[in-house]
Backbone:
C-alpha cells in the first residue's frame, strides 16, 4: 500500500539545525520544507498545506510561539512541534498554552521528534 | 612704669655692652698714636744728611693702614691721636709753617689712599689678586703721594720746590709699597688665623727669614766702602723674595720686602752697603729705585699665586662638597670620562655592590650587571654616548649578597664651562620594590578582571547553554538520520556520509564555543601581545550571539580592513567588548523588537590608536548617570555587581587607552574605547 508522503515544514534560524532536522525527517519518509524565520514561512507560496510544523521558538524577529498564535488566529490550526535551545519554565508554559503536540528541548533524541510527528499526523 | 623700667634697663644694657668695646677702641687709638709717634721718631733718626732726606717715611703708611682696617666713624680719633703726637714733636720746633704743611699734606694723602683702597682695592685683601693689587698701587702708592707732594713741597722753603716734591713723593710711595702692605697682610692674617699653610711651614718660614736677614745684612749693612761697590750683590736677596712669594703668598712676600727695605735703608743711613758710594741724594734715589724695582714684581707674583691658590681651594672645596654629597646620598652615583670609561663611583654604589672602587673603575662595573641585561644596557649607554644625550636604562645589578635587584639608571652628559664634553654623570636607584608593587597591582587587577569575567559568564549561562545546544541538537538530528539511512536496504551510505560531515561541523562549532568560554574563564596572567582588534571583536560577538538572540537583538559588525595591530591582552580586551555588548542588549530591553540593533565598529583612530565603538538604540544615559556608570558598585541593572564598567575602564587604562560613553544624537548611547597600536605591523 502506497501512502502519500506527509509534508512537514521546519522553521529554525540555525542553519545546521535546520539541515539536520530536514535530513532526519527525509530519512523517515517525510516531505520537508525549510524556513529560516517565521516571516519567511508566512511569506511562502502555498501549494500544499504542511501536515505538521516543527518550530524553533527563539527566532530572530517573530518567535515560534507568536507564529503558532498567528496561525491559530487565522484559522489554520496546523499541529506544531516546538523545539528550543533555551530551557526556561516561562517559555515552556507559553509554548504549551499556545498549543503544541510536543515541546522538545535541544538537543533531543531523534525518535522523540519522529514519534511526535507520527502522533500529530495520525 | 614697666616701659620706663625696660627702657632704662635697655639703655643700661646697651651701655654696658658698648662700654668694653669703647674701651678697646680707646686702647687701640692710644696704641696707634704711640706707634705713630715712635715711627716719626724713627723717621727723623733715619734721615740722611745733609738735606735730611728720608728714604721711607713710615707715619703716613701706618695711619693709612689703620684707617683701612677700622670703621670710618672712628677715623677722627685715630687721626687726632696720630697727629697729636706729631704736633707735640713739631712744637719743639715752635710750630713752623712747614710742620703745618706737612700735617695738611699727610692728611690729604692718608684720606685719598684709605678711601681709595677701601673703595677700589678690596681693603686688606688688596694683595691677593692682580686686579686689586693694581688698584692699590695706582691709588695708594702713586696717586696719594703724588697729590700730597704738591702741598708738602711748599715746606722746603728756599730750596727747590721740585726737589722737595720728589723727596716727599718717593719716601711716601716707598712706605706705601713696603710698610703698609706688611701691616695690612699681617692684620688680614691675624683675622683669618694665619691659615694652615703657616702652621705646617713655620720651619721653612724661619729658615727663609734667617736666610734673608743674613743675606740682607751681608749685602746692605756689613760692607763698608769701597767693598760695597760690588753693585751686583744687590740681587742676592732676590731668590729669597721669590721664595717667600711662591711659598708664602702675599704675607711672605710683603714681610720679605719689608726686611730688605728696612735693612737696606738702615745700611744706607749708616753709610754702608751698595748705596753709599755717591752723593747722599743720589744714594737715596738709587736705594728707592732699587726697592721699587725689586718689590713690584715680587708683589705681583705673590698676588698671582694667591689668586691661583684661592681658585684651587675653591675648586677643591667644591670637589670635596660634591664627594661628601655623593657619598652620603642614598643613591648609586657614577661618573665617566669622555672615553666611556667610568672614573667615579660613590660610597652608595660601592656599598651596594660590595666591591672596591678599583674593581668598578673603567668597565669593571659591567661585571655586576646581569648577563641577560648587559648587552641591552651597554647598547643604550653607547648609543646615548655617541649623541651626548640623556638616557635611562633599567637593569639588574648584582648586590653584595649575590641578589640582582632591578635598578633604574639615569645618565646625563657633563659639559665643561667652555662647552667641551667631559663624560657622563649618572644616578641609579633600586626600583625592585616599585616593580614588585607594580606587578602586585597588575596581579590584583587581573584577579579582579577574572572575577568580573566569571560574573559576566554567570549572567550569560542561559545564552551560553543556548549557544551549545544548537550544534548539539544538529548533531543528534544527523545521528538519527544516519541511523535510519543505515537500516535501509541497501543502506544509503551517501546520505550517511553527508550526515557525518554535518555532525563533524556541528561538533567543531560546539568545541569552538567551549574553547572561547574556557579562555574567558581560565585564570591566566596578563600577557600583552600584538593583536588584531578585529579578531577580538569577532570572537566577542560569537560569544554573545545567543544572548543577542535571547534579547531579540541584532548585532552588526563593521571592521575596517588594514588596521594596525594593537598591543594588548586578548582575553581582557574581549572581556571589555563582552561587557559593552551585554550592556547594550540590556539597554534595549524595553525597545520594540525590530529596533533592537547594536552596531559594533572597529576603526583606526589617528595614527597610533584603534577605536572600538558599541552603539545601541536604547534609552540612552541620563545626565547624572553618564559620570557615575564607571564608578564601582554603580549598577542600573537589577542583578549586576556594578563592577563591569569600572573594571573595563581599569583594563583599558592599563592598556594605555581610554574608555568613555556618550549619548547618540538621535537615540541610545555609544561606548567607545581606544587601545594604542604597539607596533607597525598590520592586521590581516
Residues:
Amino acid at each position: 500500500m502506497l501512502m502519500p508522503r506527509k509534508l512537514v515544514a521546519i522553521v529554525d534560524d540555525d542553519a545546521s539545525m535546520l539541515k539536520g532536522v530536514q535530513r532526519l525527517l527525509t530519512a523517515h519518509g517525510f516531505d520537508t520544507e525549510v524556513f529560516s524565520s517565521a516571516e519567511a514561512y508566512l511569506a511562502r507560496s502555498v501549494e500544499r498545506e504542511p501536515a505538521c510544523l516543527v518550530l524553533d521558538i527563539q527566532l530572530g524577529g517573530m518567535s515560534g510561539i507568536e507564529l503558532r498564535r498567528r496561525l491559530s488566529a487565522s484559522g489554520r490550526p496546523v499541529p506544531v512541534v516546538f523545539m528550543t535551545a533555551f530551557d526556561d519554565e516561562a517559555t515552556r508554559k507559553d509554548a504549551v498554552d499556545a498549543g503544541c503536540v510536543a515541546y522538545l528541548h535541544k538537543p533531543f533524541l531523534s525518535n522523540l521528534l519522529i514519534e511526535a510527528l507520527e502522533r500529530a499526523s495520525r | 612704669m614697666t616701659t620706663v623700667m625696660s627702657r632704662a634697663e635697655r639703655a643700661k644694657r646697651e651701655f654696658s655692652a658698648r662700654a668694653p668695646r669703647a674701651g678697646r677702641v680707646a686702647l687701640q687709638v692710644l696704641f696707634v698714636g704711640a706707634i705713630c709717634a715712635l715711627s716719626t721718631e724713627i723717621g727723623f733718626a733715619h734721615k740722611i744728611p745733609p738735606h735730611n732726606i728720608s728714604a721711607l717715611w713710615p707715619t703716613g703708611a701706618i695711619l693709612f693702614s689703620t684707617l683701612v682696617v677700622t670703621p670710618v666713624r672712628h677715623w677722627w680719633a685715630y687721626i687726632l691721636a696720630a697727629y697729636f703726637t706729631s704736633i707735640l714733636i713739631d712744637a719743639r720746633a715752635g710750630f713752623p709753617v712747614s710742620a703745618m704743611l706737612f700735617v695738611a699734606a699727610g692728611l690729604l694723602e692718608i684720606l685719598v689712599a684709605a678711601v681709595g683702597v677701601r673703595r677700589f682695592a678690596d681693603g686688606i685683601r688688596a694683595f691677593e689678586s692682580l686686579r686689586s693689587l693694581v688698584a692699590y698701587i695706582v691709588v695708594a702708592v702713586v696717586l696719594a703721594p703724588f697729590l700730597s707732594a704738591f702741598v708738602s713741597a711748599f715746606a722746603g722753603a728756599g730750596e727747590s720746590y721740585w726737589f722737595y716734591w720728589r723727596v716727599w713723593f718717593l719716601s711716601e710711595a716707598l712706605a706705601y709699597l713696603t710698610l703698609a702692605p706688611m701691616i695690612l697682610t699681617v692684620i688680614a692674617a691675624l683675622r683669618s688665623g694665619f691659615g694652615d699653610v703657616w702652621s705646617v711651614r713655620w720651619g721653612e718660614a724661619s729658615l727663609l727669614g734667617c736666610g734673608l736677614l743674613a743675606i740682607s745684612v751681608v749685602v746692605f749693612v756689613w760692607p763698608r766702602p769701597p767693598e760695597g761697590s760690588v753693585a751686583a750683590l744687590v740681587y742676592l736677596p732676590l731668590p729669597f723674595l721669590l721664595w717667600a712669594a711662591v711659598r708664602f703668598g702675599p704675607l711672605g712676600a710683603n714681610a720679605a720686602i719689608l726686611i730688605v727695605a728696612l735693612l737696606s735703608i738702615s745700611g744706607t743711613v749708616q753709610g754702608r752697603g751698595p748705596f753709599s758710594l755717591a752723593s747722599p741724594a743720589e744714594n737715596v734715589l738709587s736705594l728707592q729705585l732699587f726697592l721699587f724695582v725689586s718689590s713690584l714684581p715680587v708683589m705681583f707674583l705673590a698676588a698671582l699665586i694667591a689668586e691661583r691658590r684661592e681658585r684651587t681651594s675653591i675648586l677643591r672645596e667644591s670637589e670635596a662638597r660634591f664627594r661628601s654629597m655623593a657619598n652620603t646620598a642614598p643613591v648609586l652615583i657614577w661618573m665617566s670620562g669622555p672615553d666611556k670609561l667610568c672614573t667615579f663611583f660613590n660610597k652608595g654604589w660601592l656599598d651596594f655592590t660590595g666591591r672596591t672602587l678599583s674593581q668598578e673603575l673603567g668597565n669593571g662595573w659591567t661585571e655586576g650587571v646581569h648577563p641577560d641585561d648587559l648587552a641591552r644596557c651597554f647598547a643604550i649607554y653607547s648609543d646615548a654616548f655617541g649623541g651626548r644625550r640623556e638616557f635611562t636604562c633599567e637593569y639588574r645589578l648584582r648586590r653584595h649578597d649575590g641578589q640582582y635587584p632591578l635598578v633604574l639608571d639615569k645618565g646625563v652628559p657633563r659639559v665643561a664651562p667652555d662647552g667641551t664634553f667631559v663624560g657622563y654623570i649618572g644616578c641609579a636607584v633600586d626600583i625592585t620594590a616599585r616593580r614588585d608593587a607594580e606587578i602586585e597591582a597588575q596581579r590584583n587587577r587581573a584577579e579582579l578582571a577574572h572575577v568580573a569575567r566569571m560574573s559576566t559568564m554567570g549572567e550569560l549561562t542561559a545564552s551560553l547553554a543556548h549557544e551549545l545546544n544548537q550544534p548539539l541538537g544538529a548533531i543528534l538530528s544527523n545521528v538519527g538520520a544516519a541511523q535510519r539511512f543505515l537500516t535501509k536496504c541497501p543502506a544509503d551510505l551517501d546520505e550517511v556520509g553527508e550526515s557525518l560531515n554535518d555532525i563533524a561541523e556541528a561538533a567543531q562549532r560546539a568545541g569552538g564555543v567551549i574553547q572561547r568560554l574556557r579562555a574567558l574563564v581560565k585564570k591566566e596572567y596578563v600577557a600583552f601581545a600584538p593583536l588584531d582588534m578585529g579578531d577580538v571583536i569577532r570572537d566577542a560577538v560569537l560569544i554573545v550571539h545567543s544572548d543577542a538572540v535571547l534579547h531579540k537583538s541584532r548585532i552588526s559588525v563593521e571592521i575596517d580592513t588594514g588596521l594596525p595591530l594593537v598591543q594588548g591582552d586578548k582575553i581582557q580586551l574581549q572581556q571589555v567588548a563582552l561587557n559593552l555588548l551585554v550592556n547594550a542588549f540590556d539597554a534595549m530591553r524595553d525597545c520594540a523588537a525590530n529596533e533592537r540593533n547594536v552596531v559594533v565598529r572597529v576603526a583606526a583612530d589617528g595614527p597610533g590608536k584603534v577605536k572600538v565603538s558599541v552603539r545601541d538604540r536604547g534609552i540612552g544615559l541620563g545626565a547624572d548617570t553618564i559620570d557615575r556608570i564607571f564608578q564601582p558598585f554603580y549598577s542600573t541593572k537589577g542583578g549586576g555587581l556594578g563592577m563591569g564598567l569600572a573594571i573595563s575602564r581599569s583594563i583599558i587604562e592599563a592598556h594605555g587607552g581610554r574608555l568613555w560613553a556618550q549619548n547618540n544624537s538621535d537615540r541610545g548611547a555609544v561606548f567607545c574605547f581606544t587601545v594604542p597600536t604597539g607596533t607597525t605591523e598590520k592586521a590581516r
User: Anything to note?
Assistant: Chain B is about 60% helix and 10% strand. The interface with chain A takes residues 462-463, 465-485, 495, 498-499, 502, 505-506, 509, 546, 549-550, 552, 554, 593-594 of chain B (CB under 8 Å). Residues 680-684 of chain B have pLDDT under 50 and may be disordered.
